[in-house]
Amino acid sequence: MGTVGDAYDNAMAESFFASLEAELIERHSFESKAQARMAVFTWIEGWYNPRRRHSGLGYLSPLNFERSQQMQFDARKHEADHADGAPQTV
Questions:
Q1: What is the pTM of this model?
Q2: 73 — phi, psi (to 5°)?
Q3: Four-CA torsion 81, 84, 87, 90, nearest 10 degrees
Q4: Which of 11, 31, 33, 52 is most buried (most C-beta within 10 Å)?
Q5: Where are the domains of the chain?
Q6: SS3 letters for the chain?
């Protein structure tokens, strides 16, 4: 989070909402709030998080970015757990 007046304070959030507006809201008209909510949910969970690549995440989708971070964390934890050379028990 940036400081007050920092140009990058809300950059990620503003980028998200600009994409939402350009890719979904401006292209559709909704008959009800419920229909709009479902369309936004579907856009986020069906497109934005699993597939859309982001420059701020190294051109990975949020889902793939989280998976890569988890894999790195798991690998570091595995290395730390086995660094002492003690025999492993299962």
A1: 0.59
A2: -60, -45
A3: -10
A4: 52
A5: 11-81
A6: CCCCCCCCCCHHHHHHHHHHHHHCHHHCCCCCHHHHHHHHHHHHHHHHCCCCCEHHHCCECHHHHHHHHHHHHHHHHHHHHCCCCCCCCC
